[in-house]
């Protein structure tokens, strides 16, 4: 990869690109109110909204990151997928707005999620919430930061009473009712932002048993790991990115100390019904199988 920037330089480029794209997104955002009409909200699939902000941010990130990293592949929620990415040793895995529904509703629970992946593993990550002006970053082997200050996960060892972030949509479906007597649950939008909040020690854990895509959690996984935590499938298996089909059925993230206990607690629990399998459109990779 001698034609690529040094890893620290790559992260600096990712941070700048995320913050520039965040400024674009904030042109449409209205705290506590629905987005401006100019955001052009529409549905690209069942319960899967798309806005002009998503597309503009995606275009900016695509231009900034690939122009500075020749030879890298690209996987983004808002760019048509192509099997060429499977041939690249390094690939950007991007979600220009993770938490589009919260963005539309005026809730500051969304984030840009950028990861640089090498041979299936994230090596640099940036999660930027432009509404709260929080920029979470990580380099493999070098720890995690929030606005340039070191962060780490909590040191809680008792699963009972742990603080846990839950999906707003899953909470609305009643998926989290069985856990309300066990944990201190708070609902939150973007899974990328939830993972960042676990990484910085504000919460002990978060998980989902509903389908997610690589762009939803790739950057957050590195943040949690570099802050001392652990992220796995419900089975306990590790993740390997840049798969033919980038959809997974579960993501569990904890401070590490609680992980085995959480795996055991969820072992017999079935996966949530796959109610959100996206549809392939010209505007989204939508987790389709490549051939």
Strand order in space, largest sheet: 3-4-5-6-7-8-9
In CATH terms, what is the architecture of the largest domain? 2-Layer Sandwich
Counted by DSSP, the helix tally is 7
Q: State the end-to-end distance.
A: 27 Å
Radius of gyration: 18 Å
Work out the strand percent.
25-35%
Largest sheet report: 7 strands, mixed
- Strand tally is 16
User: What ranges have pLDDT less than 50 throughout 5 or more consecutive residues?
Assistant: 274-291
Mean pLDDT level: 92
Categorize the overall geometry: globular
Number of structural domains: 2
CATH class of the largest domain: Alpha Beta
Report the helical percentage: 25-40%
Written as H for each helix and E for each strand, in order along the chain, the element string is HEEHEEHEEEEEEHEHEEHEEEH
CATH homologous superfamily caption of the largest domain: Fructose-1,6-Bisphosphatase, subunit A, domain 1
> Which fold name corresponds to the CATH topology of the largest domain?
Fructose-1,6-Bisphosphatase, Chain A, domain 1
